[in-house]
Amino acid sequence: MGNMKLNLKIWRQTGPNDKGSIKDYPVSDVSEDMSFLEMLDVLNDNIIRKGEDPIAFDHDCREGICGSCSLFINGEPHGPARGITTCQLHMRRFKDGDTIHVEPWRSAAFPVIKDLAVNRSAFDRIQAAGGFVSVNTSGNLVDGNAVPIPKNDADSAFDAATCIGCGACVATCPNGSAMLFTAAKVSQLSLLPQGQPERKRRALAMVEQMDKEGFGNCSNTGSCEVECPKQISLSHIARLHREYLVATVTKE
Fold this sequence. Notes:
alpha+beta; Ubiquitin-like (UB roll); 8 helices; elongated; 252 residues; Fumarate Reductase Iron-sulfur Protein, Chain B, domain 2; 7 strands; two-stranded antiparallel ribbon
């Protein structure tokens, strides 16, 4: 297959308080072996050569690890593929002559900074509210491997720990809910011995902070699990409900 010509319809917005709009950008010489972000790099190079302002978008590792490259592509978080992030999406998924719509995450809790870049610091504040463990740093640490953990618990904790905080769950949810993200962070630690001392306080504090940030309520549509690039299970949301209930009824 030769290089493709595409018509990109990209959201442009100069700042958080400015009114944005969709702009048309034709781009040619797009190889099917390019990643989606490499295609945007080519487009930005063309824009800069014309003396215009390049399109702002988040990216960092480009290996599906950091969660920075979060784009709404043709109405789907991270594009048409499943189990990958935007940086892992390759142009072979598209055809010559395609029109591709590219927008930022849409959520009141993720305000647009510029163009396709959004402010996801709300996730940082939820994490800071309780997504940690107290560790003895006196030098008398117990080797982590000395504490037996059931295989099922270890596997579930690892599943939750794969969350990269990209925000696809929020972007795809009709309610703008952050339940899958919060549940993954709570569930990961509630399943491990190291997470037990702050277990109840963690569930209460992180859910309270999630509500403060303005995220919507979960109505179990399941879209978050479908679009999650790490395919984190909805079962973690069920576990969060149990953790929160127990912490509420036993709160001193």
